[in-house]
């Protein structure tokens, strides 16, 4: 594998190998503040982000540094992007400086794939989120988090994805990972205005009644309401959205007793999830974040090591 652009079509063995490796890295790192390895010594990795990020960017930086790489954090807001330089020219110029690995986030669907097509032979790209299309390392870290909580047999799991599925690259990558890993039942729930096309939802049970869809699920994957990608009028009001699709402690009792709750962040507290649930005993939100470092180490090691 030269680039990681999407989980769609990625073989199950490759996904399992990445999850195994990340699980091993995470176990080895437990109880230590840092664990430095040397597989990327001499390699320069650039986090090339044209959209904001806290978790993905920071965890890729930590992951690359823990593998011994030099890391360049490209800040679009203070770069020549502001003068109109294209993403392609930016990439080619950074390549000319010796950058070999690019972790790219962009607002447009397909932008990272287009940059990968323009990149030189020895260059590797990882998609850190493009438009609403794909966020493959989030899909992997969510799968790892579920596997740690529920075991490796996904065929026994009922998983519910809730909220703004239409605008969510996380949901698309989660769906690819869950299908490839053979998840027993995948349910998707949200208002009709925030559900994507039928192809995206193939094989899923789809509904708009959150309380009914929650019955007996083993995991609830909440999504952020992506107001920055949303046209006016897709939801009536934030209060109504919270009333219909907000995960409260009361609602969560409908799920299986040991059900776990995931959210990719950033959280709109009090909108898609209450503080009580986000910070409660069933929440794996911060476990997802720490798994993000291990997954990104496994991905960088596989592509660049
Ligand atoms: N989950 C996620 O992609 O978060 P950031 O936007 O902070 O990177």
Q: Can you offer a commentary on this structure?
A:
Helix content is about 40%, strand content about 15%. It has helices at about 10-30, 55-65, 85-95, 110-120, 135-150, 170-180, 210-215, 240-245, 250, 275-280, 285-305, and strands spanning about 45-50, 70-75, 100-105, 125-130, 160, 185-190, 205, 220, 260. The strands form two sheets. Strands 7-6-5-8-9 form a five-stranded parallel sheet. Strands 2-1-3-4 form a four-stranded parallel sheet, with helices on both faces. Helix 1 packs across helix 5 (about 135-150) and helix 2 crosses helix 11. The model has no long low-confidence stretch (mean pLDDT about 95). It is α/β, with parallel strands linked by helices. The chain folds into two domains: about 10-135 and about 290-305, Aspartate/ornithine carbamoyltransferase (Rossmann fold, 3-Layer(aba) Sandwich); about 135-285, Rossmann fold. The site of phosphoric acid mono(formamide)ester has 10 residues, from helix 2. InterPro entries: Asp/Orn_carbamoyltranf_P-bd (IPR006132), Asp/Orn_carbamoylTrfase (IPR006130), Asp/Orn_carbamoylTrfase_sf (IPR036901), Asp_carbamoyltransf (IPR002082), Asp_carbamoyltransf_Asp/Orn-bd (IPR006131). It comes from Pseudoxanthomonas indica. It holds the Pfam family OTCace_N.
Question: What is the total tally of β strands?
Answer: 9
Shape: globular
Terminal CA distance reads 12 Å
Helix-strand pattern, N to C? Answer: HEHEHEHEHEHEEHEHHEHH
Q: Briefly, what CATH class of the largest domain? A: Alpha Beta
User: What is the second-level CATH architecture of the largest domain?
Assistant: 3-Layer(aba) Sandwich
Largest sheet data? 5 strands, parallel
Rg value: 19 Å
Strand content: 5-15%
**Spatial ordering of strands, largest sheet:** 7-6-5-8-9
Query: Could you please say which CATH topology of the largest domain applies here?
Result: Rossmann fold
Structural category is: alpha/beta
Binding site for carbamoyl phosphate: 55-56, 105, 135, 138, 265-266
Binding site for L-aspartate: 83, 169, 224
Domain Aspartate/ornithine carbamoyltransferase Asp/Orn-binding: 157-302
GO molecular function: amino acid binding; aspartate carbamoyltransferase activity
